[in-house]
């Protein structure tokens, strides 16, 4: 008998809150006293305790009080071998890669170092409430092997692949298209769809890829249409100029990935800070996704992602949110929401007509505002949909994998507890509005210290000391 249950206060999403402007609660599912029933890691029942409790009498039940339980967080863009160099001082993207990133990632060709770094990486993810991620590794096959081995041991859902680069990096860091093809082919066979592992063709970025390498990626996708494709796009102006110099036949950055047949469902481009309206439209029509990485975009000075444009209902772009750790200086998706909110507010101000009234766009301006429901949807079900893994994770629908996070709204910096007591005077949230207020408090006043427990496939994988 492997059935067990968790009783507590649950909140998840059944729709995209951006589709319900003015009535976002229509996208939310909330049970002040709920029950989640799990069989062998899979959700087999979920609902109000009053309604479904009698069906599960006698089931081994963990009762969690004074907490909000939400689906495990999805980090759509993170770099495993940058675990030790997050928060490096003083550079924009291209010099930062040369100075801080490539020398550190080089160490992950050594298995022992890769194992040590990988352990730190997974410990940090679980302590941050992240149960699903799409990651870059390094150009050494060892790094990707260690990622999938550790993900399997921890039973976490991971999307990753060798991170290929064959130009604009030191010789000791590049991989040839031939070696990349051979190693990726072997790894696809060994890891793809084994347990919870999914494989991604991962050209690091267009600036670091020769035509031959991109043709190799195209070949891999043609030979394995089920694979994911993960890369960077339009992050930094110097990078974009470099890409357009390398590919003068392309009018924009996206066109370069389109040229090699990589853009479509299961393609994710990280950052997209400088995407044009037309690129957003083409991404939307293709079914591809973009990752909003606000911690990194601010930390590396890359720019302000146009959230209100990406969420335009006319050309809605699938979005994941990501830490981009170590370009992002945090592991926590809660910090990502904090910075995303601030970026949204800056865009909101620019478009509200206060500076140039003729450029006022109130609908786009409003879509930049990251309400708690928009935010938590984006790092759970929204992220899962963008990555085409919502059949597995994202919310508490029956049949999905039971990954969830137990949030303590009183935990965090010293200011949090008294602040939150204003919002939760009668103990825990009784209504969706109260739950939303507490979630907003968590994203703006707290951080990963709000993560009390992280559960993976129905088992507790992390508990705060
Ligand atoms: N573009 C190419 N490589 C990287 C990386 O490691 N981090 C970020 N933020 N952008 C990149
Ligand atoms: Zn990145």
Automatic annotation (TrEMBL):
GO terms for biological process: guanine catabolic process. GO terms for molecular function: guanine deaminase activity; zinc ion binding. Residues 68-459 form the Amidohydrolase-related domain. It catalyses: guanine + H2O + H(+) = xanthine + NH4(+). Pathway: Purine metabolism; guanine degradation; xanthine from guanine: step 1/1. Its EC number is 3.5.4.3. Its cofactor is Zn(2+). The keyword Metal-binding applies. Binds 1 zinc ion per subunit. InterPro entries: Amidohydro-rel, Guanine_deaminase, Metal-dep_hydrolase_composite, Metal_Hydrolase, Metallo-dep_hydrolases. It comes from the Bacteria. GO terms for cellular component: cytosol. It is an enzyme of class 3 (hydrolase). The keyword ATP-binding does not apply. Signal peptide: none annotated. Belongs to the metallo-dependent hydrolases superfamily. ATZ/TRZ family. Catalyzes the hydrolytic deamination of guanine, producing xanthine and ammonia. PANTHER family: GUANINE DEAMINASE. This is Guanine deaminase. The gene is guaD.
